[in-house]
Each structure stands twice: as structure tokens, then as C-alpha cells.
Protein: A-type ATP synthase subunit B
Organism: Methanogenium organophilum
Amino acid sequence: MKEYRTINKIAGPLVFVEKTEPVGYEELVNIVQSDGTVKRGQVLDSSDEFVVVQVFESTAGIGKDSGVRFTGETIKMPVGRDMLGRILSGAGKPKDGGPEIVPEKRLDIGGAAINPYARQSPADFIQTGISTIDATNTLVRGQKLPIFSGSGLPHNEIALQIARQARVPGSTEEFAVVFAAMGITKEEENQFMADFERTGALEHAVVFLNLADDPAVERIITPRLALTTAEYLAFELGYHVLVILTDMTNYCEALRQIGAAREEVPGRRGYPGYMYTDLASLYERAGLIKGEKGSVTQLSILTMPGDDITHPIPDLSGYITEGQIVVNRELHRKGIYPPINVLPSLSRLMNAGIGEGKTRDDHKKVSDQMYAGYAEGQDLRGLVAIVGKDALSERDQLLLEFADHFENRFVRQGHDENRTIEDSLDLGWELLSTLPEELLVRIDRDLIQKYHPKYRKQGA
């Protein structure tokens, strides 16, 4: 293996090497310091003049006299069946005091693109136990559905609750969770580890934890290691895998930091112009493949800077993914958990995963009616602020009360409360029964007579 001592410049996590032979993109690099210690890196860019190497740790100690060796290999993730139940670092090294993973295979972390013709349309309902997701913004197996949150909101608690509770009702197929946290604090790390161990959810999970003081370059690798692990569990071992990625904003900040070190021309708000493509290379690794038993479903969590949904990170994520779940600061201030606002939330694949034989025949109609009632109640709150509650008609006062009941009884639930889809729909009917039947214009008459509490009691 040739060793080059032609380092020209060091900028942040990047090392610029000149006068090399042709090397491959994403090739692994060993950098030998003057004291003999070796640091690892990866080829980020290659041209006739320079090869740009991003170092996976601090560049302290690397000088122009350091040797650079190109290995001819790309980063590979060691994967095996015994990964379930393990907690790993953002670089894939054990953090739980356990032994190194004995690999059955080593897979390229870039993954393999799924041929669009080979993709199977998602159609199976995943129950998270959270009513605002299951009943009104349903998650479907093979879907990629981001959670848009804000700084200080309980998105981590929601992620942990979903990781504990997610399952496919009535299915005996093997289910696993791959949880990847990027740029988290030590306090958050302890919270995640304690929760997984307390609830026993770790038994069917693989956890990757990248800390805020870890190198930015590692943050770029962490989600790719997690998705490679998920693909192995899904398409080689037949598991149905739910991948939870948090926080994609920290990932994008690392992209911006590395782009600045490379002196790239910045795009919107300083983020790289290729951020859309980069995010798509992660999000598009969710899905189902025809003829394969397993599946990869993605829940990516991102915090919107300044709660701005038009910020480049949520904006681009919304284009690539199939909807969004929006965590709301106003609901959080009211003490409501989980503070999910169903009005701007959307699951584009919801209709494919609900209905008779999957959830229940009244699911879509109940969801639409609750959404319409809550939306009108929200509008009336603005009107009350101007004209007062006494100026409202009796109908409007009922809808105003419905909005309050919806938030306090349907949206609000406990951190460990795991509602079945039947529980959520029955609760929806209970709330709708506070409205006159003539207002239930989005529900067919036969469904009202079948599920409305008034007629159920008569039947009993």
C-alpha cells in the first residue's frame, strides 16, 4: 500500500492531499501521524489536483509530514442476527459493554437502490398506540413519514413511545426497531438507554447513538449504518423493521459544516445545494420489495429552526417523504402530550392501509369527521377572541366545545398509554356523539347506526 506525504492543507475535518494516483469516491483512508497513531477517514472528493479526505475524528495531531494511505475499500457495516438488543456508537462500535459484533456479513453503508419496478406498494397498517397517528395520520408498513417538531418539544419522548409500542395488529411476523440518534447530548443518551432497558424494548431493537461532541463526519455515517442494518434485518432475515432517525436537523447541520470546510458555494441558508439529493439517498431506503418477506418503514424526526415549516430541512423532507406529523408548541404549552396537531399533519399513504380487513370499515369516515369538526372549532376560537362566546350560535358553541374535548381526550394520552386502533376509533365516536347527528355529514348513515354510541346502547 502506497503512502503519500503530500498533505497540502488541513481545514476543519478535511485533509487535502495532492499528487496522488486515481482514487475512488468514499474510499477508506488511513492517516499515519508522526507518532505512529492512525486516524481513519474517507475520500469526499477527487480531482486531478487534490483528493479531499474527511477524517472521522479530530484532525489534531495531523501535520504535513503525516502519511496518507488509500485502502481501496469503502465503509462496510458488520451485520449479524445477534445485533438485536445491542447499543452501538454512531460509528457502529459497542457502547453497552458487550463484545464486538461477530459479523455474518459486511455490507456497504451506501446501500443498493431499489428498482422502482421491484417496489411493492405499502398497504399494511402499523399501530403505534398513539391516537393522533393511528386514527388520523396512519403509518403504513414501508412508508417514510417524518415528524416535524421544534426545539424543546417532546419529540424524543414520542420517538421512544413509538419504538416501544409499534406493531402490526394480528401479525405473527418478526418485528424490529432500528433507532439512530444524531448529535444528542449526554443527558439525552442516558434517557434513551434507560428507557430502552426499563421497558424491555431493547430486546427487539438495535440502537445507534451519536453524541453532540462526536465528530460531525460521524453524524453523516450514523443514519447510513442504521439503514444498512435495517435492510439486512428486513431483506435477508425477513424482519419488518421500523427505523427511527432523530434528529435530521443535526445531520443537516453536519452537512453544512463539512460543505463550509470544503469551501463549497452555499445554497439556501448556507446549506449545500445537494442537500435534497443527500436526504433522498436516506429517505428512499424505506420500502417494500416484491417477493421479499421483510420491509423497512421510516420515521425521521427533525426540529424546525424557529418552528419554521418553510425552513429548507422540513421543506425538502416534505417533498421527498409521504406526509408529515407536526408537533405543536401551543398544545405543548397547554400541557397536552403528545402535542401532535392533526390539522397540518398528513399521511399520504393512509388510505392504502386502513379500512375493512385492515383496521375498521368506519376508520376513514370517522377521521374525516373529527378533522372537519376540530378545524371548524379552531376557526371559531379566533372568532370568539373578537366577538365573544355569547355571540356564537348553538351549533358553533357545540363545535367550539368539540375542539376542547378533542384536544383533552383524543390528543392527550399517557406516555405509556398504548391505545389499540379500536380504542382510538371508539373514543372518536364518543366525542362525535356530543354533536347532533345532522352535523355528521361526512359519515354514512349505515356507519352511524352501526357504531354511534346511541345505537350501540339500543342494540345492547
In short: The CA atoms of residues 209 and 322 lie 26 Å apart.
